[in-house]
Amino acid sequence: MQKKYETQVFHVDKNVEHLESCTQIVDSAKFVEAGELVAFPTETVYGLGANACSADAVEKIFVAKGRPSDNPLIVHIGDMSQLSQVASEVSPAARRLMDAFWPGPLTLFLPKQESVPDRVTAGLPTVGVRMPAHPVALALINVAGVPIAAPSANRSGRPSPTTAAHVAEDLDGRIAAILDGGSTGVGVESTTIDMTVEPPMIHRPGGITYEQIQAVIGDVAMDPAHLREKDAAPVSPGMKYAHYAPEGEMWLVEGDGASVRAKMIELLHQAKAQGLSTGVMTTEESLAFWKDSADADVALACGSVSDMTSVARDLYGVLRQFDEQRVQFIVAETFPREGLGLAVMNRLEKAAAHRIISV
Ligand code: TXA
Ligand code: MG
User: Fold this and answer.
1) Among 238, 280, 336, 351, which has the minimal tally of Cβ within 10 Å of its Cβ?
2) Is residue 356 very low, low, confident or very high in pLDDT (cuts 50, 70, 90)?
3) How far is the CA of 29 from the centre of ligand 1 (A)?
4) Are 46 and 153 in contact (CB under 8 A)?
5) What value does the mean pLDDT take over residues 337-343?
C-alpha cells in the first residue's frame, strides 16, 4: 500500500508535570483540531482518536482501521464539563458509576446529545462515553478542547495494541501521529455497560468487573453471549466481529490440570504431524515445563496464574508475538471466568474463534 501519511511518533513521559504544555501533546492536539487521527495511550489499550464533533474526522477512523461502518465508537472525555456535550441524560445510577470508576476503564452507553454525529454512534440513539485514567490521554483531550472518539488503535480483527510499537505495526502510514506514552496498564479494553435499560446490561466484560459494578448499583445484567449460552447473539454491534485473533489457529483447553496438559500435548503433536509450526500459551508457573518438554516450537508465558491483572496486561502482546514468530497452531490454557478473568476469557475465546475443548 502507498503510504498516505508520514506518521509522526511523539514520545512522552506520562509522569512529567504539566503535560498539557509539552510540545508533543500540543502538536498532537493540533492534529486533532485539524481533523486528523492521533493514536494515544489509555490505561486499557491504545486508542485511535479523532475530534468526536467532526463527522469528517471520525470517518477517517473507519478508513484507517478498515472498520465496518455499523460499529459505533466510544467517546472519551477529559473532564466532567464535557459530559453534557456528549450525553443528553445521565441517570442517578450512571452518575454513581462515574463517581466510583472515572477516570477508569468503564464505558457507559447513555442517550446521545443531538450534536454527536451519527457517524460516531453508527446511527444508534445512545453514545458510549468514558473518561480514561491516563495522564497523556486526559492531557490530549483537554488541550484539543473537544471530546475524542476513539476505538482501539489496531487494524480491524487484529489484537488491540498495548504499546506504540503495536500501533505502528498496524497503522504506520495511515494516520498523522502516534503519541508514545509507554505500555498501557490494564491490557484489556474497558467494560461497556448500557445504562438505558433496566437493569443496566454489561455488553463487554473489561477492566472494571461485574462484581465491582454490582457493588455500586446492585442489579446488573450480563449480555448472555458472555455466559456461554449457545447461540445468543451479542447485543453490541462490535461484539459480533472476529476480533483479537492471531494469524495461527488457536485452541483453548479447559479442565483439571493433568488432563489439560495431556490434551494440549496431543493437539500439539497432531499439528506437528501436519507440518505446522506450533506454540503454547501458558503462564509463568508452567513456562519451564513447556520449554523443557519441547512439545511446542514456541512457549510463551502470559502473566502469572496467581495474578489475573498480569494475565490481562500481557495478553494482546503475547498474541502478537505468536504472529511475529509465525506460529501456525497455538494451544492455550484457560482461566476462571470471574473478576478480570471474565474479560480475559472473552478475548481468548474470540482469539480462538470459540474452539474450546473441555477435558
Ligand atoms: O478501553 C477501551 O474501551 C478502548 C480505549 C481506546 O478506550 N476502546 C475500545 O473501543 O475498545 P472499540 O471501538 O474497540 O470497542 C468499542 C465497543 C465496540 O464493541 C462497539 O460496538 C461498542 O463498544 N459500542 C460503542 N458504542 C456503542 C453503543 N452506543 N451501543 C452499543 N455498543 C456500542
Ligand atoms: Mg477494538
Assistant:
1) 336
2) very high
3) 22
4) yes
5) 95
